[in-house]
Amino acid sequence: MSTFPIKFDEKALENTRSRVPENTFPFQQGNDGDQYRFATTIANYCQKRYSLNRLPKDGLTFFIFIPVRHFRKVENIGKKLLRLKSNNQYELSNKLVISLGDSLRKCQIIEVDPQETDIWNKMAELLNEIEDICDEELCHSIVDYLNSEITVQYTGEDDNKFEQVLDFTTSQKIFTKQELEDFTNEFHDTETKLPTGNIGIWLHPNKYELLTNAEDRITNAFAVKLSAILGKSNIFREPQDIHGRIDLYIHPSALERDIGPCVMEFKVLREGDGPQKNNERLHEGVLQALDYGKDKHAKTLYLMAYDARKKLGKIDAIKQLADKHEVIYLHFEMYNSVPGERKKIIAETKKNNKKACG
């Protein structure tokens, strides 16, 4: 009996390959990535249970991330619980969940008496005791079931400490181009537009100075929040490819067919860097988006520019370059104060009124 070599349709094979997630988490292991992986795990777990109507109606849960170096110090505290991530029935209200690692596979549980007069303070005391044992502040997520919120506290050096608030009632969905851009605007309004934003990226607002790691913080916070909507297996932060590390890659399974996959490059414009350096940074961003887009066969490319200069506004030369290469250039203006934003709005209104009057 004759046999024939099997021939694959290369186009179909590539299409199938492009729809298989590269991993199940947006962030690489190690360093600060572990904290972001942990935050994503908690958000995903709460979302899943919420969709199944298996979350408490009220009460709190403190989820505490324990790095590997501290496992032995805490592994005998409380009651042992394995594979919490796959347990949708476990009663969570008024418990402190000590997670050994970022995956909820191995946990130690401390229960707080529901008759306690101030449960939040009691849990905060227990958290402080565990931090004393580990001799460092620990990343943790506080789930408030009554208000449907997860408050994540990231820790580390001063520049790495910040807070992020997530809504676990958001259901996973597939984004259109408009929905993706609406998300970017909403993120800017709550997180980066003013110094009062949740992620706190200003060092000295009155001097127009941002934190050294402002760009990384914006990208990481953006990835965590987006993964809570599109699913953690669809968002990849800094995956390695031929041309280096991509700031953000969105898998095609999370997007409408005509826009996925998608690549995003994040850049921050600083007052202290001067016009030439800022222009070069955005020019580089356009080229990076092009290179990474080719690597990933991306249908949509974004340059995400966060502008913290005194004189705000899109850079015409960059807009022309981006348009030429079909890179979508989104420019987000950051104000060092609420009055600063107000002044810009008033100035633009006057300008528009003059135009209208001829």
What's the gist of this structure?
The protein is of the alpha+beta class and 358 residues long. The chain is 37% helix and 22% strand.
What does this structure look like?
It is a single chain. The chain is an alpha+beta fold and 358 residues long. The chain has two domains: 18-171; 174-358, no CATH class. The chain is built from nine helices and 16 strands. The longest helix is centred in the last third of the chain and has 23 residues, at 274-296. It is globular.
Radius of gyration: 23 Å
Mean of all residue-level pLDDT scores: 86
From N to C, what is the helix and strand string?
HHEHEEEHEEEHEEHEEEEEHEHEH
* Helix residue percentage: 25-40%
Number of distinct helices: 9
Task: Tell me the span between the first and last alpha carbons.
Answer: 86 Å
Instruction: Tell the overall outline.
Output: globular
Strands, helices and their partners?
Layout: H1 10-18, H2 33-51, E1 60-66, H3 71-74, E2 79-82, E3 95-100, E4 106-111, H4 119-134, E5 140-144, E6 149-154, E7 162-167, H5 177-192, E8 202-204, E9 209-210, H6 214-230, E10 235-237, E11 240-241, E12 244-245, E13 248-250, E14 262-270, H7 274-296, E15 300-308, H8 316-324, E16 328-333, H9 338-357
Parallel strand pairs: 1-3, 14-15, 15-16
Antiparallel strand pairs: 1-5, 2-4, 3-4, 5-6, 6-7, 8-9, 10-13, 11-12, 13-14
Helix pairs in contact: 2-6, 5-6, 7-8
